[in-house]
Every structure is written in structure tokens, then in C-alpha cells.
Amino acid sequence: MTVRNILKMGDPRLLQIAEPVTAFDTPELHALIHDMRETMAAVNGAGLAAPQIGVNLQLVIFGSDHVNPRYPDRPLVAKTVLINPVITPLGADEEQGWEGCLSVPGLRGMVPRWAQIRYTGFDETGLAIDRTVSGFHARVVQHECDHLIGKLYPMCVRDFTQFGYTDVLFPEIGEAEDD
Ligand code: NI
User: Fold this and answer.
1) Residue 104 C-alpha to ligand 1 middle, in angstroms?
2) pLDDT at 13
3) Into which CATH architecture does domain 12-176 fall?
4) Where are the domains of the chain?
5) What is the pLDDT, as a whole number, of residue 68?
């Protein structure tokens, strides 16, 4: 397994539309997911999309099996591999929340997201996933899946008075590396 380099905003590969995965349960797919897990863990991330390591496939990972000690109040989201996702908003309610991104290091912004969504897709073995979620779980899924359509969270910020450096906005966190 290898910790891969994470592309940063400005790299045109982050702006592409990702291709669907067509072959499941292959050694190549498992190796890619291993690398993504290791890469995400190395920087304490909440999620990672394949395009962030330069792989233009519709594949995201998110979730954790332990509470991040720096964010004890953040709800635990089950470790998930989500391939070829489809997101459907349920209702018109939006929620504002702070987001960061491993491809936008050192910054945070207030981003509106659908409060409740249904998402479908497949895991790495081709097993169907179909979940209805809200709150932080819904936010993480929307953030990661935006990476598959070339969208980074700063493109979703509406109020740029609520966009800035993490160590200034949240001095108690300091130089955070997560998200
Ligand atoms: Ni991101």
C-alpha cells in the first residue's frame, strides 16, 4: 500500500467529470481503495475521492471506525466505499456547515448542502448500496461526490465572509489537515 500524492486546487485533473467504474472486485480496484484508505488516514481525512489522487473514476471513500479526537462531537459515519454514486435530495431543506478539503489545505468555508439525501451506488465487490441519510453523513457524501463532477467546495460557498484560514477561523484546531 502507498500513501498517494493529493492533488491541490488549481490542478485541472480536479475539474474533470469522472468515468464510471465498470469492473468490480478486481485486484486493481482493491489496490486503489487500499491506497486511498492509507492516503486518507495519513492526513486524518473524513473522505477522499479518486480524482483527488489523479484517478478519474467515480469512486469515493469516507467514514471512520473511531471518533477523531480533535472532533469528539462529530458523528461517526460508517466506513464506506461508494462507487458510481447517484444522489437524490429528499425535500428542499438545506443546511449550512463548515467544510474543508484535502485538495484545499488550510482553508474552511461555510457550504450549503441538502439536509437529507438518498444515495445509491455500489461497493468494491459490486454490492448495491442504498441509504437515506441526513446531517453530517449527508454533507460528507455530497462533498465527496462533488469531486466526481469536477466541483470543489469553494465553488459552493455563497457567503465569502465565511471562508478563510482554518487556524484563524478556528484557533483551537490550529493547522488542521483533515477533510
Ligand atoms: Ni474534498
Assistant:
1) 7
2) 98
3) Alpha-Beta Complex (3.90)
4) 12-176
5) 74
Q: Which of 144, 172, 175, 177 is catalytic?
A: 144
The reported pLDDT for the residue numbered 179 is: 58
Q: Which residues pair with 59 in a beta bridge?
A: 83
Cα 29 from Cα 106, distance rounded (Å): 30
Sheet strands (E) in the chain: 47-49, 59-62, 80-89, 94-99, 107-114, 116-122, 128-134, 163-165
Rounded distance from Cα 108 to ligand 1 centre (Å):
11
pLDDT, tens only, 60-75 = 999 988 887 767 778 8
CA 10 to chain centre: 18
- Reference 101, options 15, 1, 178; nearest CA is 178
Residue 87's φ and ψ, nearest 5 degrees, are -110, 130
pTM, rounded to two decimals: 0.94
Ligand 1 centroid – CA 52 distance (Å): 8
Tell how far the Cα of 93 is from the centroid of ligand 1, in angstroms.
22
19 is catalytic: no
Which amino acid is residue 170, in one-letter code? F
